[in-house]
Each structure stands twice: as C-alpha cells, then as structure tokens.
Amino acid sequence: MPEFEDLVDEDLILDLIYNISKAASEEGAYAGEMDYQKILYLLKKRLSDDPEINRSLQFYWYLHGPYSTLIADGVQTLVQNNDLKTSDQSKGKGYVLNDDYSQSKLNNTIINEFNNIIEDYNFFEPREEILKNIYSNAPYKFQRYYKFEFKPLIEDIEEESSFVLSEGRKRKLMNKMMMAEGKLPKNNKFPKFNQVFSRFVTLSDTFFENLETKDYPEGLDHLCDISKEMWSVFCNRLRILEHDPYYDHQVEKWERIYKRSLKTLSEKIGNFEMFISESAENYQDIEETRSDEDSPWGTVAQSLISE
C-alpha cells in the first residue's frame, strides 16, 4: 500500500463524521452519505492550509462529485461499532447518532470552520441542490452542464411512454447537446472522449433530421443509452486526472477501466450509426452516415476498438 496511507488520521475522520451526525440530530434531521462527503469536502476547501485536514480528507471527482472512500469507510466503521444507526428515509439511507460515542478533541481551527459550514448548511435541502452547490467548484464546465442540464432531459425522455418527441423537444435536446459539446474540456486531457462525443452529436442531429417517426423508439433507445454511458466514461477519465495523492495507487486500475468503457461506448456509437444508415436507406436517399475507415472518425473508432 502507498506510504500516504500511513499519514491519514482515521480518528480525525471519525470525529468529523460524529460532529456532522450530531449537528443533523440537533436540527431534527438525519445525515446521509452525501452530507458527510460534501460537508467534509467543503471543510477541506476552506482549510486547504491545514496539514491534518489535507492529509486525512482525500477525494477524487467521480459520478456524483468529489468522493472519499476514507469517509465512506469511516461511516461504516461507526455503524459497525454501533455509534451510528442506519435509518431508511424518503430521500435514501440516513444515519442516526447513538449517545455513547466518545470523541477525541478537534483543534479550534477545525471546530470554528466546521461550525461556520454547519451554520449555512441545510440538512433538509434536496440532495440535487446540495450537489449543484458543490459542482460550482467542479474542475470542468462540462461536468455541471451535462449533469444538471443535459442528463435530466435524457432521463425525462426515457420515462415517457411514447418515445416520440415534438419538434420543440427535439430542438431543445439538440441545443443542449450542442451546448454540452461547446463546454468540452479544451486542455487536451480528454482528446479521445471529445472526439467520441462530437461524433455522437453529429449522429444525433442526423437521426432527428432524416428518420421518420416509426424509427424513434429504437433510435431514442440508442440515444438515451449512449448519453448515460457518456457520463460514466467521462467520469472514469475524470477521476484519473482529478484525485488527491492517496489514490495514486489506483490510477493504473482506473486507466484500464477507462479504456474498456471508452471501447464499449465507441461500439455503441457504431451501432447507432449503423442503425441510422440502415433505417434511412429504407425510405429515402440521404447522405451516407457510415464513416469510412480512412475518415477521421473511422480512424478513431478503429483505434478504440483495437486497444
């Protein structure tokens, strides 16, 4: 295991989790997994110069914002020790404090800043709003836009029974997709992902412009599935780039996961492209959408599949 692990103060993490649970209980609320993660992320941001906090609160950005396995493990430790009790709530699993937990003393700097955060924190606030506040500090604009603007629209479409979109809904979907494309990271850290995403935008536009209503259910199924997969692939790459030193030993494994997920995504986009080509050929002459192997996208797709 990495030497950095020896620097983590597990007791500090447990004490902070206890104090969050206590603050929630005093407000007649419960603390959920997201509350622990996000409050302690804010604490680390505010106490960036505190060596204890920096060593012990180690995060990486992933599907639902900054995440720490150390905090998640700390919660489970307190549950196993019967210091916290689980309580299923309408918003998900929460944790209720037992009275017999004996905590060690946090230093005054940590306590003061912790209290400032708790004073402004609302345990009753919808989890979506908590996440939006956290994502205001996200490393890339694409993250916030895709998660809170584009992804919810895809989820709404999935829930509809007819899978037929009005012209206005199609324009809204394509506008948001193109806006997301415009917010892709420009720093050469996501080169293959950016190429794959841009190809997906082009294919989606072709789908809406050329295919008839009868093809919508299957075509939208492709589009929604790829859109969800796109977020996972982006986040697989994201945690490789945006993580604290404690997770350095995970990077090699994360790289393998990212490459596999990128390959799967590329294959799904290839299937979507084939569906558009074959469906369009059935009833009208439109420009062929299937990419030649020597074209820019064809080259990218082949390289992904062969990796």
The unreliable regions are 283-291
Number of helices: 12
Shape type: elongated
Structural class by sheet pairing and helices: mainly alpha
Mean pLDDT: 85
Helix content: 55-70%
Major sheet: arrangement of strands: 1-5-4
Q: What amount of the residues lies in strands?
A: 5-15%
**N→C terminal distance:** 29 Å
What are the salient characteristics of this protein?
307 residues; mainly alpha; 2 domains; 3-stranded antiparallel sheet; two-stranded antiparallel sheet; 12 helices; 63% helix; 7% strand
Protein topology:
Elements: H1 10-26, E1 31-32, H2 33-46, H3 51-56, E2 60-62, E3 65-67, H4 69-80, E4 84-89, E5 92-97, H5 108-120, H6 127-135, H7 141-159, H8 167-182, H9 191-210, H10 216-241, H11 251-281, H12 296-306
Antiparallel strand pairs: 1-5, 2-3, 4-5
Helix pairs in contact: 1-2, 1-4, 2-5, 2-6, 7-8, 7-10, 8-9, 9-10, 9-11, 10-11, 11-12
Please provide a written account of the structure.
The structure is a single chain. This protein folds into 2 domains: 124 residues, no CATH class; 169 residues, no CATH class. 63% of the residues lie in helices and 7% in strands. The chain has a 3-stranded antiparallel beta sheet with strand order 1-5-4. Strands 2-3 form a two-stranded antiparallel ribbon. About 3% of the residues have low confidence.
Would you kindly provide a brief summary of this structure?
The protein is mostly helical. The chain has helices at residues 10-26, 33-46, 51-56, 69-80, 108-120, 127-135, 141-159, 167-182, 191-210, 216-241, 251-281, 296-306; strands at 31-32, 60-62, 65-67, 84-89, 92-97.
